[in-house]
Design a protein that fits this description.
21 helices, 2 domains, Growth Hormone, Chain: A, globular, 79% helix, mainly alpha
């Protein structure tokens, strides 16, 4: 691979930032854009609701399982090389998704996309942190990065709706191909290679245990309504989940450099932030999944019209995320966390009254509340996770918070989809709109948990537990370097900065 000199001018650094943001656009779009296409995929591939759940969760599960491994791979073998490999795999996966003749192949190709995606955003953040060595420039670059997250979320429903309505659902994967190819070429031309001074060791037992745990829990939730909770495959899946959890609890404390240091969970802010991340992204995953089915299957809107109707949720996320980040930096995390919990709870409670004839004015304000809450609560999550922790451990804490986001999204889709399937196929044979009600109550429950933890995780007692947890962590010079690298590759942020995703 050709040698690329380190950037010496601001223009060169901004060019590298633009290249890195290209990866964020395609990975961010892929989440919301696929949701818009779900009803079309269901009709074309003749699949069930559980099949649609796997279309989403196969991607988020693999991403959650491998995101920290992707970052450490870049630290060890070269960030540019890993970034380009991720672009190649994501682009290839997108092409194969567009050609998938059935659901099984589509799900497998979505998993290939996710393997590539796990090498993109965390490694791109590492590249940005390495290139922008001036703290002020770095903060500005991270702000741009965070803005692109909001843009991709807002653009996904519109772009996806337009493509599905005019060309078909397969076209939503075509958009990734030219962007991926351009990113690969530009990275080779302009991005310098870099590695961490000390890359964290690979933890095969921890990695395998987490994959088994995440996959078995999600499989159980999605498939149990159809197969039955007492069926052999569901019981087997639950046994695997228990065994994987036992493996994590036994082996991780005994590992020299564990994938997840369980001592962190003695910190109330860290534990609370992980649960808030699960709740916030579980609520978002459930929201997108249920609304897509409701607007297109129950209200019979076109994909484009359905995408436009979700804008009242997406636009506040774009606007409030940077505002929330600034409040976190100046006044702490409690205000945006409380506001976010209240608004997610209010919007979700409004949607529990959803019917086939619900006015679009009612939906508009429900979506507006939900989007405002999510936009406010997302940035403080990483800040809450690292509050009171030593800077040397902040990177690992931020990485776990990032993983919690992806797991929350997977579980949100799994749980609300399973509840909707049970309600629709159960003895009452509810219509689709009414069948979504149990799922909306779960989403409201996520908002309530977020609200309670907003007070708990920012209390003096909580910060005291964080200090005591920090005192128990043995930190040496090598760990300091390793954690700083993990902070960059996880896309995390230290107190006072703007968290990114």
């Amino acid at each position: 691979m050709s040698h690329v000199p380190s950037p010496t001018t601001r223009r060169q650094r901004l060019g590298i930032l633009a290249i890195c943001c290209m990866s964020l656009v395609i990975v961010g779009l892929d989440n919301t854009i696929v949701n818009v296409a779900l009803p079309s995929i269901r009709r074309d591939l003749h699949t069930s609701v559980s099949g649609l759940q796997w279309t989403i969760d196969a991607y988020t599960l693999v991403l959650a399982s491998l995101v920290m491994l992707g970052g450490s791979t870049g630290d060890r073998f070269g960030r540019r090389r890993t970034f380009q490999t991720g672009l190649l795999l994501f682009t290839l996966g997108s092409l194969l998704c567009s050609l998938a003749p059935n659901l099984d192949i589509l799900v497998a190709c979505r998993m290939l996309q996710a393997v590539g995606g796990s090498m993109l955003n965390p490694v791109a953040m590492s590249i940005i942190t390495n290139v922008f060595d001036d703290p002020r420039e770095r903060a500005q670059a991270i702000g741009v990065w965070g803005g692109v997250v909001g843009i991709s979320l807002a653009a996904g429903p519109i772009v996806g709706g337009a493509l599905v309505s005019s060309i078909g659902w397969r076209s939503i994967f075509w958009i990734n191909i030219p962007v991926g190819i351009a990113g690969f070429v530009l990275a080779a031309r302009f991005v310098p290679e870099s590695r961490a001074a000390h890359a964290r060791r690979f933890d095969p037992v921890g990695q395998a245990s987490l994959i088994a745990l995440f996959a078995s829990v999600t499989y159980t939730i999605i498939e149990a309504p159809t197969a039955g909770w007492g069926s052999t495959k569901i019981l087997t899946s639950m046994i695997i989940a228990v065994g994987a959890l036992a493996s994590v609890l036994y082996f991780e404390p005994r590992s020299a450099e564990p994938l997840i240091d369980l001592r962190f969970f003695r910190s109330a802010p860290f534990s609370g932030a992980s649960i808030i991340a699960l709740g916030a992204f579980g609520a978002l995953g459930g929201f997108l999944f249920l609304n897509t089915l409701y607007l297109q299957d129950a209200r019979h809107l076109s994909p484009l019209h359905a995408g436009l109707d979700v804008l009242p949720m997406a636009l506040p996320t774009l606007v409030l995320a940077p505002v929330s980040g600034r409040i976190v930096g100046s006044r702490g995390a409690r205000i945006p966390l409380v506001f976010g919990g209240v608004m997610v709870l209010a919007g979700s409670l409004m949607l529990t009254r959803m019917s086939d004839t619900t006015s679009f004015t009612w939906l508009f304000f429900a979506y507006l509340c939900f989007g405002s809450g999510f936009g406010a609560v997302n940035p403080p999550i990483t800040n809450a996770a690292v509050s009171g922790m030593p800077r040397s451990q902040a990177g690992v804490a931020a990485g776990v918070a990032s993983t919690s986001r992806q797991i929350g999204s997977s579980l949100g889709v799994a749980v609300v989809g399973a509840l909707a399937t049970s309600a629709e196929r159960g003895p009452l044979h509810l219509g689709l709109a009414a069948a979504t009600h149990p799922g909306w109550w779960v989403v409201a429950g996520c908002g309530a948990v977020m609200l309670v933890l907003a007070f708990v995780t920012t209390s003096g007692w909580a910060l005291g537990t964080a200090r005591r947890a920090a005192d128990r962590l043995v930190v040496g010079p090598r760990a300091e370097v390793a954690a700083e690298a993990t902070l960059a590759r996880s896309g995390g942020a230290l107190p006072g900065s703007v968290p990114t995703h």
